[in-house]
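Tokens for chain A. Residues wanted.
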């Protein structure tokens, strides 16, 4: 399968997510009362790998292209909402917007289901 420019963008975003996850993990370790940063870090690190996996599965033809791309971008957006909300609460003392973290969490669940459907859906 020929490389899609979106794949490259997703790999770049996954790299940024991974770096941010490590930064938040370090901050969680070295700052007092940084309990919100650990789950933000974990969500970014886990889903950076999920983005890379979705790209690889899509490129190999194991999952449908549209579903794989939707899932991968869902992982990016949802992780940013979840981690961004928790980080903003820690550093600024307020939320990104009401229900941002739960919205991100719900979108992560939906993205995982989209990935599963993309693998199960017959290719044409």
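Reply:
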């Amino acid at each position: 399968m020929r490389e899609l420019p979106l794949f490259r963008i997703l790999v770049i975003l996954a790299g940024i997510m991974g770096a941010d996850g490590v930064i938040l993990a370090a901050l969680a370790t070295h700052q007092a009362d940084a309990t919100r940063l650990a789950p933000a870090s974990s969500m970014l690190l886990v889903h950076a790998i999920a983005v890379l996996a979705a790209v690889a599965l899509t490129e190999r033809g194991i999952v449908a292209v549209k579903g794989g791309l939707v899932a991968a971008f869902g992982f990016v957006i949802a992780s940013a909402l979840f981690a961004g909300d928790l980080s903003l609460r820690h550093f600024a003392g307020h939320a990104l917007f009401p229900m941002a973290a739960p919205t991100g969490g719900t979108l992560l669940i939906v993205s995982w289901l989209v990935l599963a459907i993309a693998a199960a859906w017959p290719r044409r």
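DSSP finds four helices and no strands in the chain. Residues 65-92 form the longest helix (28 residues).
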